[in-house]
Amino acid sequence: MACKDTSRGLKCALLLACLLVHSQAARAGGGPQNVLVVINDQSIESQEVGLLYRATRGIPERNLCRVSVDPYLYNATNIFFQTAIVARVQQHIADYGLSNQIDYIVLCKELPSRVNANEGATAVLFYGFKSAPPIISTCSMPTNTRSAYYKAERGFSRRDKYGGTNLYLAMMLTAKTLYHSISNIQRGAAADGTAPTGTIYLLAPPTDGNRNIRYKLFSGLNFESRFWSAFPQVKESYNNAEVNRKDVLGYLTGIANYPDWFWSTNDFRPGALADHLTSWGGRLPEPGGGQSPITEWIRAGATASYGTVAEPCAYMEKFPDPMAYFWYFRGFNLAESYWMSVANPYQGLFIGEPLAAPYARPPGIVISGPASNQVVSGVVTVQVAATTNALGLPPRALDLYLDDLWVGTLTNVGPAAGNVMSAVIGGVTCSYAVTTGDTLYSAVTGLAASINASNTPVRAEAYGDRIRLVYTNYGQAGSGITYGTATSIGTATVLSVWGLALSSNLLESIYPAREYLSIVGTANTGDTVTCKITLTNGVVVTNQIIAQQGQAGTALIALLKNLINSNAALQATAGVRAVTFTYQATQEMTLEARKPGPEGYNLFVDFQVTQASPPGGLSTGTSFSDNFDDTEEYVFNDPVRTYSILTAQGNILFWTGQEPLEADYAWDTTAVPNGRHTIRAVACDGAATETQGHAVIPVLVSNSAFACVLAAPTNGETTVLGSNVYVEASVTNESGGVTQVVFYVEDKPGTVLTNAPFVTAWSTLDYGVGQVSVRAQAWDGTGQSALSDAAWVEIQRSPTLDTDGDDAADSWEQENFGGLYVYRGTNDPDGDGFVNSNEYVAATNPNDSNSFFQVAVGSETNWLTRLSFFSATGRVYAIQYNSGYLTNFNNWLVASNSPFPGIGGITNWVDDGSETEPPIAETTQRIYRVRVNLP
User: Fold this and answer.
1) CB atoms within 10 A of CB 132
2) Do 298 and 322 lie in a common domain?
3) Which H helix or E strand runs over 94?
4) Residue (of 225, 228, 206, 227) closest to 215 by Cα position
5) Number of domains in the chain
6) How many Å apart are CA 154 and CA 333, to the nearest integer?
7) Do 499 and 582 fall into the same domain?
8) Which of 796, 828, 847 is the last residue of a domain?
9) Residues 658, 394: contact at Cβ < 8 Å?
10) Residue 253 pairs with which residues in a beta bridge?
11) Which comes out higher in pLDDT, residue 61 or 896?
12) What distance in Å separates the CA atoms of residue 408 and residue 405, rounded to the nearest whole number?
């Protein structure tokens, strides 16, 4: 239904008086009013998934954006995607007044998942099309693809822009089948607030050294988890798979594919994240090259997954960091946690349920006035109050929505100017006085700067509401350093910022020091590889290999590994081991300190390749002389965040807010139609999670007797997809006559009538299977307006409808294939010679090559011919016979009892002469055939 202007200033929305100005908006954390759902009207499964997701999450119908795209279009050109998807989304947001509230975009099932064969659709909606080369010959990283939301550790709001690059957090609700998509939605919603226990499995499959590279990131998550007593168990596994696990909260691995049996071996907890690092996991529907698609994780029971749509090369920056699980545990929702974990997501596709938030704890909130369903008129005071959440965090801000359109921020409490935030580190106090205009995030950054400017043995790094303290005396134990925090009222009149140190002392590193060595190229005779290791006691151990002609870097890495591991001088606690984390030949090797902890930093390696005949021959991936200090951040080459997991750390959290947090809003009801309206109040907590709490009430506005009533359909009415819904409205107590009645379907304006009777109809095919509301709004000659109550219509699946026109009913395809767009009617997936449209008509199993329509010929004791076949209910059968020669196919006759209905069992038809003419005894031959058709 196209958007249109109608009189009285109505533009694709109910008229609201929504003017409220505050200096800072306070929305983040993600609520139903912040989500735009994109539905493809050429796909009834996209429609059904979108309507179900809307109903499950309570998303306003106004937030459903409909597009029209070929459901088999998986790869779109950028020009097409910008026109058919991006522009349509932008226009919808503008037309419906949603620009101040949409932060999330959900693509429903049959929509393009990649753009120009190289960039993920969710990435393009997130920060635009990057025009990156499809396969980079040098495997370099495009400089314009970095995400400013990467590791931001704060609730997402489009208003924050994050360096001006970010638009929306986008995810695709998709799966191999419709049923898996439905269960995915249900699992995501069921996860909310459950704080599940379980295990996060981090795998580095040894058979796939090209893809198991995220093992370098495992210790970072482990270190952070140690500050939280309730953090789920983290299991690092160097197996190809973990199976028969009943408690999977996360499954992160690197492998091209798993066999089909694997996907049913584990039980995933609601809200679980799972992905595998491989080239084309996000290239839907089937990646090719024997790689498993990320939709397999949804089928297995995960709530979300991620993969790249084109060859990414082995860049970890293009895949989720295990730290996603840390932010998830902190209370960020699924979309925020996953998006924060990918540094360069341009080739990536995020799939799953974005609002799932198993560890979120929303603040309490009530609307104390007016009362639910109260009749109101004139100016009404809306009274809102919010309280602390289950973790004791106070609310920070209150937003108000009328009919789910953002009105404004009623109040937003940040750290009060003059409040003092302090950190005490090893007896040294570092402080920051909050200044006017400071947010929690800028104040935390200010305190971190104060710490770094003081004489303390730590470096402070600010992440949202958190300061990480990193011990800077590398190579030495730091657990003796105490730290704490305090806040005071200072020169302000109220204290509105607080802090908590997550331990009393810095936690020591328990991880082995590592250095990564690589050898590339092919050797010339005499090329020399030297790995000189200086132990912590000053002993220098030299390992050297003189290469032979033609030896590859992989062979020399293997030789060097064996040489180091057999060197007696390196076997003691102070020594090192060489590890490759794979059975495969590889060009890279890890040197790992045998003793974990900070002392490993004091190991020193000088790694060089000397070419016998330069410039040809071997070279190192990186020639260097360095301490053992490689960490995950070295791999990412991130100059902003260069901490080492080899040194002791601490964490301080801060939050702001007020409890109780109260606000009033004077609502002039004369600016809205008479009728039922919704007030939604949203509170967000004072931490970086900015988790939302919601209070929603209906009220009945009655500024006059003028009323509009919907006579049809009735609320709760059911109908079948493909039918038309009759709509009728009546108007009473108007003044000056009725000037127009506008009918709304899905909360969007459609038919406009200026004369009675006010009757119209709409096609269910325009909306799909699910719940759709109908309303009517009338205007009279004085300019007054009245709005009817909504009637919800439940549209159900049709047993016979064939929306994709492939001569097989949609419901039959969904039952047999799990979805409408898995196969076409002309496909023959079981290879029995009968295409799907034939098997549909015959009511046979299209997945079983032994199931096809067949007739057995026999005879009775009196030698009369008997035809036996299975006849299905819902089908009709006709017996045809021909007493002529095989070449005379024009003489087919129909037995007199045909057609007859199937019985759901074996039908035996005997040619006893009562239904055929002449009797078979009077013929020299007779040929038979059986036709099956739909009724």
Assistant:
1) 17
2) yes
3) helix 87-95
4) 206
5) 6
6) 11
7) no
8) 796
9) yes
10) 276
11) 61
12) 9
Q: Pick from 219, 213, 248, 215: which is nearest to 233 by CA? A: 248
Choose among 706, 749, 692: nearest CA to 332: 692
Residue 889 is predicted with a pLDDT of 61
CA distance 510 to 899: 80
Residue 320's contacts (CB-CB under 8 Å, 6 or more residues apart) are: 252, 273, 275, 306, 338, 341, 342
pLDDT bin (cut points 50, 70, 90) of residue 582 is: confident
| CA angle at 336 for the pair 332 and 338, rounded to the nearest 5° | 110
In whole angstroms, what is the distance from residue 147 CA to residue 55 CA? 32
DSSP lists the bridge partners of residue 666 as: 381
Cβ(741)–Cβ(790) below 8 Å: no
Give the whole-angstrom CA distance, residue 627 versus residue 618: 24
Tokens, residue 98:
């949603």
Does 633 have pLDDT greater than 50?
Answer: no
Q: Is the pLDDT of residue 288 over 90?
A: no
The pLDDT of residue 586: 83
Cα–Cα distance measured from residue 92 to residue 876, given in angstroms and rounded to the nearest whole number: 48
* Selection from 299, 302, 348 nearest residue 325 by Cα: 302
- DSSP designation for 617: S
Token pair for 246: 């009943």
Instruction: State which H helix or E strand residue 771 sits in.
Output: strand 770-780
Q: Give the residue, 34 or 861, on which the prediction is more confident.
A: 34
Residue 314: exposure state from Cβ atoms within 10 A (0-12, 13-18, ≥19): middle
Same domain, 518 and 617: yes
Instruction: Check whether residue 757 and residue 904 sit in a common domain.
Output: no
Q: Is 348 in contact with 321 (CB distance < 8 Å)?
A: no
Secondary structure of residue 382 in the 3-state scheme: strand
Banded model confidence at residue 135, pLDDT cuts 50, 70, 90: low
770 sits in which H/E element? strand 770-780
For residue 658, count other CB atoms closer than 10 A to its CB: 19
Other C-beta atoms within 10 Å of 230: how many?
A: 9
- Split at pLDDT 50, 70, 90, the class of 628 is low
From 750, 772, 796, give the residue that closes a domain. 796
Alpha carbon distance, N-terminus to C-terminus of the chain: 34
Same domain, yes or no: 334 and 392: no
* Residue type present at position 465: D
| Residue 911 placed within a domain | yes
Does any domain span residue 813? no
Residue 658: pLDDT above 60? yes
Question: In this predicted structure, what is the pLDDT of residue 137?
Answer: 59
Greatest distance between any 2 Cα atoms in the chain? 116
Q: What is the pLDDT of residue 132?
A: 80
- The position carrying tokens 């970095």 is 146
Q: Are residues 85 and 151 in the same domain?
A: yes
Q: How far apart are CA 88 and CA 83, in angstroms?
A: 7
Are the C-beta atoms of 360 and 333 separated by less than 8 Å? yes
User: Which range marks the domain in which residue 685 is found?
Assistant: 364-411+661-701
According to DSSP H, which parts of 108-265 are helical? 121-127, 178-191, 218-225
Query: Are residues 146 and 201 both part of a single domain?
Result: yes
Task: Look at residue 383 and tell me if it is in a domain.
Answer: yes
Inside any domain, residue 814: no
Query: Which pairing describes strands 540-546 and 528-534: parallel, antiparallel, or unpaired?
Result: antiparallel
Answer yes or no: do 89 and 183 share one domain.
Answer: yes
Report the share of the chain in percent with pLDDT over 90: 79
d(CA 728, CA 733): 17
Q: Do 311 and 210 meet the contact criterion of CB atoms below 8 Å apart?
A: no
Report in angstroms the alpha-carbon separations of 774 from 12, 361, 418, 717, 793: 14, 35, 53, 11, 8
Overall average pLDDT of the 443-468 stretch: 97
Region 563-585 average pLDDT: 90
pLDDT band for position 6 (cuts 50, 70, 90): very low
Q: What is the pLDDT of residues 229-244, one digit of tens each?
A: 999 999 999 999 999 9
- Residue 15's pLDDT is 30
Q: Which amino acid is at 469?
A: L
